Every structure is written in structure tokens, then in C-alpha cells.
Amino acid sequence: MYENIKNFTRNNKSNIIISSVFILSVYLIKLGTLATSIDNEAAISVSSSLYTAWLSMGRIALVYLKKVFGVGIYNPFLSMFMLIILMIFSIITWGMIFDYIKNNKNKYAYWIFISIFFTAPIMAEQLGFVMQAVEVLLGINLVAISLFYTYRYFIDTPKKYYLIISVILSGIAFSIYQALTTIYVTAAICLFILYISRKDVTNPKKIWQVIILNIILFFLSYVVYFVLAKCVLSLLHIEATKYTGDQVAWGTVPVIQCIKNILKYIKGTVTDNTIFYSKVYVVLAILLVINAFYGKKEKYDKRYYIYILAIGALLVTPFLMGIILGGQPTKRTAISYPFMLGFSSMYLFEEIRTKIKNKDAILILMVLVALVPFKQSVLSSRLYYTEYITNKESEIVATKISNRIEEITGSYNPEEKIAFIGCMRLNRNNSCYQLEDLEYVGRGFFETSFSTTHGSFLMRNYMATLGINYQCPSEDDAKIAEEYAKDMPAWPNKESVKKVDNIVIVKLG
């Protein structure tokens, strides 16, 4: 294995260098600056509660990987360093599996896949949750290794332990982060398209066996995840949360409504003008369809209709999370979208390159393709810049609120309960995205509150990351605070902070 990695890195220096440049253009800012996003504050202030919550969600491997590697105490700088190293490793992991299935005959432009996948704003949103980003990325690589052993069973010798390894690795990946099931399905389809393009793969019967076995292995992997979660929760006497189940509309609303939700989601994804989606999908979809029908029948012969089926499946993969939920997923879970864009761009580039003889034309094509990760880098790095500025402004607001509370209570760490009512809007600067452009990364803590108890808990945890320790109000305290806050002005008015009995009320909005 070491020799294989050594040979691959030696033969793919340009792939690794170009990919690394694009990756660093987005994520290097996170290594040199500290910006705490939503949920990261919990990893610092109430880590044990967060880990218990993760266990209740079924993210068993996510918690125990932290324990195994001794990183249970969250260090954002170390996490970002490890994340960047793991991204560079991902270039080799995915490049080698593509190279293996392509039979090592062509030097593929793997940098296209990696660059588009990791610079996508959806991935920037996902990896912005730094407290779990390293493990999620590790899970993505486990999916790659899992599928490598699956195709090793098909291509080399059909040793059953290859399949056992495959199922175990993907089961672990799913228990890190359930959304990786969509990465598994998307990657399996992508690799299958490369597999049936091999000249030594001509038997339709064997190809159908590959499809069926891939499906069986996926479900077996999910069973491994499900059983692992059940066993661990039972042993630890932790009740499974409805966090993931509550997001699934299937079975809770009529089927026709779920279908409408999915169609609305697909339409929104294709036509969306936010930073997270683009028209690139439409362009790639058109090119994939044209490429599928242009001269492919002769090339694939009896495999042709299977190839068409695979391309059709590939076109559906960006919407997998919406299909699973029967509705609108959060942006950070729609990670199959950039994965499909990255693979499709790489695949089409190679398809077109084989038809072009002029080196200048190939160079122009390469530059045009590079514009996609470049544009994404601009968007994603701006997202992280927004996060940085938001944190700086939030610290200023936190200091002013803390000073006001100290004036009222006479203590830096008061014994009174602190109830934060409502939320406010931060100013940011003209180079930042504004609140309506954001999902969670870049959103301020003082801009997020679903209820008084939630907002107070969130603000309490954020203040704790700055060394300011407050007590959270109870449900009854929150109701009392809400009643008094009705007649109070909003922050930064001097009367927006008031003490009532054993409660300090901070009305943000």
C-alpha cells in the first residue's frame, strides 16, 4: 500500500498541488483566526452534554473517535490543522480509487473533483462546524476506502473479506454522520460509471450483479450502523432523540405532500440564486445527457442501456437528502450536491479531452473548468470572512452586555439568572454576507433564538467561551422575564437590561 501511495503521489504532483491551492484559498483563513460558529460554543462550554446529544442522535463513532484520539477537549486550532491535513489526504484517497477503477491507464484530472467538492459553499457550511468537521471528513474517506474494497472484489479476486471490510467501514462512516449515506450512494454511482467504461467489463449479467451487490452492501452497512447505535444507547441507558426522525416528512404528512415538497426542493436547488447553489448543475446535466447519447451506443454496446441508467441516477444524486426527508434539508446536509458536481465536471472534462487533439484547446478547456472552483472559492472564503467579522462584532456586543449586567448585579459572574429575550441583527461590513444570505455559519449568537430558554442557553454557552459565566433561567423564570420584557425597549437602549427579583432580563429584540 505504501508503494502504491508513493507512486500515485509521484505521478500526480500537479493534481495534488492544484487541489491544495484551491483548498487553502478557502480554509487557510480558518487556521489563522478563531471564529466560533453555532454549535461550536457547546463543544467548548458543555462538551459532555453535546456528546450525549450526539450519542442520542446515533452519531456513535463521532463521539468515540474523539475519545480514541484524545481530542474530547475541543481545540479549534488543532481541529482546523487536522482538517486541512485530512483534506490533502483526501486528494490521494479519492484519486487512487478513481485511478484504480480506471485501470491506471489514463492520468485523470482528479484536481477537478477535489477542488469543486471542497470549495463548494455547501462543504464550507458543513466543515464550518469545526467541532465535528475532522470526523465527518474522516467518514467521507472511510466511504472511499469502503468502496475501494467493494470494487477490489469485482476487479481483482472475489475474496469475501473484502466485502466484510467494506460493510464495516461504511457502517462506521454512517455512525459518524448519517448524511454520509448520500455520499456513499453518490460515490457508488460515480464509481460504477467509471467501472462500466473499462474495456474488460462487457458482460451485462456481471454488471447487474455488481449493481445488486452494491445495493445489498449499502443496506448491510446501514444495518451495521443501526445495530451499533441501538447497542451503545442500550448499554449507556440513553434514549434515542427524535432529532433526525423529526426532519423526515414521510409518514407524518400525506405522500402527495412529500412529493410536492421534493419537487419544490429540486426546483429551488436548480433555480436558487443563493451562495449555496448555482446554474452549474443545469449545464452539467445538459452536457451529461448529450454525452450519453453521442457515440456511446457503439462504445458500450450491450452495456449501453445500463450506462444510460447510471447517468440518470447520477443526475438525481444532488437531491438525495431532499428525497430521503420528503422535504427541504439543511444546506450542510446536501453534501451529495457538490460531490456530484465535482465528479461530473471531472468526468466530462476527460470525455471531451479524449476528443480534442489540440493542446491549446485542452488548456482553454482546463481554464474554463478551473473557473468553477475559483468562483466557489470566492464565495466560500467570503463566508468564512463573514464568520470572522461576525465573531468580532459579537465579542463587542458581549462585552457591552456583560458590563451592563455587572453594573446592575455588582458581579462579573452574578448568581442571578440571565434571561435573553429575542434576538438582534448585527451590522457586519459591506464585504460580508448579510443575515438573509446565511444558514448557520456566519450567523451571530445574538441573532439566533427560537425561544427564551433556547436563546438564553445559547447565549450563556457563547459567553462562557469568552470566560463570562452566567446562570440559565428555568422555564418559569423565562415566562416571568417575557412578561416584564413586553414593556422594555430593545438593546442597546440603557433600559434593555433590567433586574427583576433573581432574574436579569436582557431584551435583544
UniProtKB/TrEMBL annotation:
One Pfam family matching this protein: Glucos_trans_II
Keywords: Membrane, Transmembrane, Transmembrane helix
Presence of the UniProt keyword Transmembrane helix in the record: yes
Transmembrane segments: 16-36, 42-65, 77-96, 108-124, 136-155, 161-194, 206-228, 275-294, 306-327, 333-349, 361-385
Name recorded for this polypeptide: Glucosyltransferase domain-containing protein
Lineage, broadest ranks: Bacteria, Bacillati, Bacillota, Erysipelotrichia, Erysipelotrichales
